[in-house]
Amino acid sequence: MEYHLAASELTASINDTHAVTSSAVLSSYWGPNEPPIRTRFIEQQTVVTAVFERLAGGADVRPGDVVTHIDGVEAGERRAAARRYVWGSNEGAVERNINSLVTSDTSTWACWNRPTSRR
Hints:
Elements: H1 2-13, H2 24-30, E1 37-42, E2 45-51, E3 66-70, E4 73-74, H3 75-83, H4 91-102, E5 110-113
Helix pairs in contact: 3-4
């Protein structure tokens, strides 16, 4: 595992969206599955932007909800831990790739808050 994470960190350091490190070991580490939601990093928060109802199993999650925890870990903490391994040529690409990694294959899925006022 250590080698694969070191290779990811090296790839991330070149700041190129087209360069990515991939392996069965990393897939197992990050998780091979994606949740039935899409997220974006908006105003320093992981925000749900789309929900695939058919796959969500009746979960009460909606676009605009803010992901607060992932597998019991604060979303911001999980994002920060992944950042050093994530590739991207600009901040938007890095945040998009972080979204994909931190929500992959969560065992307890996620906890979210619904904003009381929407813009």
